[in-house]
Amino acid sequence: MIEEDLASFIQSPVMQIVGTADEALKPEIGRGAGAWASADRRMVHLVMSAWQWPGTVANLKANRRVAVTFSRPADYVSYQVKGEARLRSAEPDEIDRSGRYLVDMVSTLMRLGIPAEMIAPWLSNRDPFLVSIEVCDIFLQTPGAKAGTRLWSAAA
Question: What domains lie within the chain, and their CATH numbers?
Fold first, then answer.
C-alpha cells in the first residue's frame, strides 16, 4: 500500500519515467505527465502522451508490465513502483490535472536552471491516456547505499 508521504511525493513535481518491455524483453521508456495515488492507495494513476510514447503504449497493451520511477530533480530522491497497468483515454479532469503538473514541472526545472526550450520536448500530454497501475512492489531508488531497497510488496 502507498503511504501518505509517498502519495504526496508522487503527485508533486517529480520526473516520472515509465519503463516497459516488449515480448522479446527489449526495453522502452516514456515519461509521465502527471500522477497520483488512488483513494485506497493501492493504485497509481498516470497520464501519458500516446503521441510521444507509442512504444510504451504498445508494450503496455501487449503485456501490462510496468515500472515507474518518480525522481525529484532537486536532490534525486527517487521511488519506483512496479505493477500491472490498464489503459484508457484520459478524462477531462485527468487532462486538467496533467496540465497543472506540466506547469509545475516546467517551473521546477526552470528554477534549477534548465531553459524552457530544453524542457518542452520531455513533457507532453498530447493524445493523453491514463495508465492505472495496480501496485505490486515499491522500492527506494534514491542513489546511495539503500537504492533498490524494497519498501513494500503485495506478496508479503
Answer: 4-153 (2.30.110.10)
